[in-house]
């Protein structure tokens, strides 16, 4: 027993003598806080050219030049330097008299050890006897889909000139948060023009053609403290049409990219005429990207000139180098159907798709009904890459679709491989139906869009006045209703203009979620006031 006791004591002492790695403890997730500032936050009659901020822990800069916002802005950006726990802001120019200044540090400061970002602190001081105390707030949304716009600049100008965002920095400005919301504090009294800007080059000027902009038509008065403003951003359509690129993606396939969509596009080979079209497109030759399929690679020339025309205007002549034709590098057309996860909708036609435009195809295919009956059904062409099976499917039935080898031949002369697809159809009680009544209190021309949850347009209708619609056989899921007020009656949404200041066409969404479940019949009325 004595020896056992000695052994136990020795074991305890040995364990106590073991060297252990120190526990780092919990990660510091608390952002640095301002401990002291010069001038004091809210100070008046400040006339120095340096601001000093002392934090409660060691700090480092975090893209401070992009994050920090000084209002009113200066023609020369301040210089930011860190020494341990202290931030020094050197002001590059004399301050305006009797003016309230704010320096919003944004996410421009983080702690030295863990990189925790400062929780957006604002420094406020005045060169006069008092601090301006007025404020305005609001939301920035995209004009087309009404989604909130994050990190957009909200700009306030004393001038009401349309061109002011391109020529002068704002008197006040801030950034929107992740929900598109903004608030401008410590404002002086007076009328201001309010703009929003997607400032892609961070210079606080509207000077890039791909920057979005938005504005209010009338000036705002900062004395109206209870007002909330909603501003819609848009991309002005003021660019001239031009060819971005035309290239041969692979033998037989050309990709034409324009800088913006066009209603109609045409391409011709310089110095050549054809009795028949020399290409086919898998689009309706609209949009900013057009895919062209052609056997151009079989020509003897190594380089040809392509004349590109959009909306009846010649845009450019592009020289195109052609690859040497090699049939071994050409893939056979790949066929697919609108059968999804082993199911087809009995109320929709059965379609066959090709990834390459189809030149010819068998006029019939084999379709097995149930497990025994196999019949021949007709096939017709409904698009350059789309065929329709001429057979009406029934509810709650099983089928096998058989497309044999060489069923289709593409425009390059290559034949498809065999495709066999087994599928079923569901009962009508597994779908939903929606009845919609539209009550318009105005006589405006409108465009109604019925969309799925992802925003894909499933149906579009143009009309005036009260209307009723039915959306039947909907798959269970969530849907949206969107209304465009077509003020110029061109049948599509029209964006705004910067000069002269013109708002984009108004867009609204039905406020409730349209969740449709199996067997549901929903009846709603959407009343739209002026």
How would you describe the overall organization of this protein?
Mean pLDDT is 87; it is low at 1-22. The chain is elongated, with a radius of gyration of 33 Å. It has three helices and 41 strands. It is mostly beta strands and 530 residues long. A hairpin with a 5-residue loop joins β21 (280-281) and β22. The chain has five domains: 34-126, Immunoglobulin-like (Sandwich); 134-233, Sandwich (Immunoglobulin-like); 243-325, Immunoglobulin-like, CATH 2.60.40; 331-426, Immunoglobulin-like; 430-528, Immunoglobulin-like (Sandwich), CATH 2.60.40.
Helix content class? under 10%
Top CATH class of the largest domain: Mainly Beta
Query: How many helical stretches?
Result: 3
Q: What fraction of the residues are assigned to beta strands by DSSP?
A: 35-45%
Which class do the helix and strand fractions yield? mainly beta
How many E strands?
41
């Amino acid at each position: 027993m004595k020896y056992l006791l000695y052994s136990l004591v020795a074991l305890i002492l040995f364990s106590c003598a073991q060297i252990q790695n120190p526990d780092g403890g919990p990660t510091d997730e608390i952002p640095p806080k301002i401990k002291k500032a010069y001038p004091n936050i809210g100070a008046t009659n400040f006339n120095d050219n340096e601001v000093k901020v002392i934090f409660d822990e060691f700090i480092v800069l975090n893209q401070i030049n992009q994050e920090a916002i000084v209002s009113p802005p200066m023609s020369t950006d301040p210089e930011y330097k860190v020494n341990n726990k202290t931030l020094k802001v050197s002001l590059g120019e004399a301050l305006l008299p009797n003016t309230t200044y704010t320096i919003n540090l944004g996410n421009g400061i983080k702690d030295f050890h863990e990189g925790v970002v400062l929780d957006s602190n604002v420094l406020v001081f005045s060169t006069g006897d008092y601090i301006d105390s007025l404020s305005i707030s609001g939301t920035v949304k995209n004009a087309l889909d009404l989604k909130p716009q994050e990190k957009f600049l909200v700009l306030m100008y004393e001038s009401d000139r349309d061109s002011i965002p391109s020529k002068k920095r704002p008197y006040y400005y801030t950034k929107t948060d992740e929900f598109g919301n903004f608030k401008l504090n410590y404002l002086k009294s007076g009328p201001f023009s309010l703009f929003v800007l997607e400032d892609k080059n961070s210079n606080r000027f509207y000077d890039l053609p791909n920057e979005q902009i938005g504005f209010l038509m009338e000036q705002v008065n900062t004395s109206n403290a209870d007002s909330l403003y909603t501003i819609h951003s848009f991309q002005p359509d003021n660019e001239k049409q031009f060819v971005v690129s035309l290239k041969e993606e692979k033998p037989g396939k050309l990709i034409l990219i324009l800088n913006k969509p066009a209603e109609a596009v045409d391409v011709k080979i310089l110095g050549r005429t054809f009795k028949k079209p020399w290409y086919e497109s898998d689009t309706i030759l609209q949009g900013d990207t057009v895919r062209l399929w052609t056997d151009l690679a079989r020509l003897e020339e190594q380089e040809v000139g392509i004349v590109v025309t959009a909306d009846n205007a010649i845009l450019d002549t592009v020289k195109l180098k052609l690859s040497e034709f090699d049939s071994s590098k050409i893939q056979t057309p790949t066929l697919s159907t609108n059968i999804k996860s082993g199911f087809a909708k009995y109320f929709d036609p059965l379609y066959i798709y090709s990834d390459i435009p189809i030149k010819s195809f068998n006029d019939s295919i084999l379709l097995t009904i149930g497990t025994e009956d196999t019949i021949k059904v007709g096939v017709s062409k409904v698009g350059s890459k789309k065929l329709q099976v001429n057979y009406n499917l029934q509810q709650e039935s099983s089928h096998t679709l058989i497309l044999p080898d060489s069923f289709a031949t593409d425009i390059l002369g290559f034949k498809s491989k065999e495709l066999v697809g087994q599928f079923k159809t569901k009962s009508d009680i597994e779908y939903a139906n929606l009845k919609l009544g539209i009550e318009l209190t105005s006589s405006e021309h409108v465009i109604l869009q019925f969309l799925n949850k992802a925003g894909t347009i499933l149906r579009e209708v143009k009309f005036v006045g009260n209307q009723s619609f039915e959306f039947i056989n909907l798959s269970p899921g969530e849907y949206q209703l969107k209304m465009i007020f077509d003020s110029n009656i061109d049948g599509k949404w029209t964006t705004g203009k910067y000069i002269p200041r013109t708002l984009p066409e108004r867009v609204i969404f039905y406020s409730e979620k349209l969740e449709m479940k199996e067997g549901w019949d929903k009846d709603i009325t959407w009343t739209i006031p002026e």
